[in-house]
Design a protein that fits this description.
Strand order of the largest sheet: 3-2-1-4
Structural class: alpha+beta
Number of domains: 2
Helix content: 40-55%
Strand content: 5-15%
Number of strands: 4
Shape: elongated
Largest sheet: 4 strands, mixed
Length: 127
Amino acid sequence: MINERNAPVYRKSNGTYVITRAETGDLDYWCGFPDDPNGCHAEVQSYLAEHPEALVPEPVPPPPTPEQIKAQRIAQIKARLGEIDLETARPGRAVSLGIQTKADTDKLAELESEASDLRLELQPLLR
């Protein structure tokens, strides 16, 4: 039997089960998706029918710390700045060749404005 030590069983929102070591709380066994022919769903569900007390709510992860939120925003800004660099290639090439259109110069101005705003937001986050 998968849960011979009567460890807590968590049913995750994606339909899988996680069985933990009761003594440490560490992952002991992960039971895949219900439609997996090699999975253990039927066994776990049978066990839970006999031991409903073993099914406990999935632990809620702690909210992100301010440092994590800051790091995530820094990563988002840097990723967008990289995208902006890529988006400037075609209109920038047109300008460098002297064949730009108003759409090219407008696009470059729009992207530079966005990049400038992002760099201003980024500076205090890096301190």
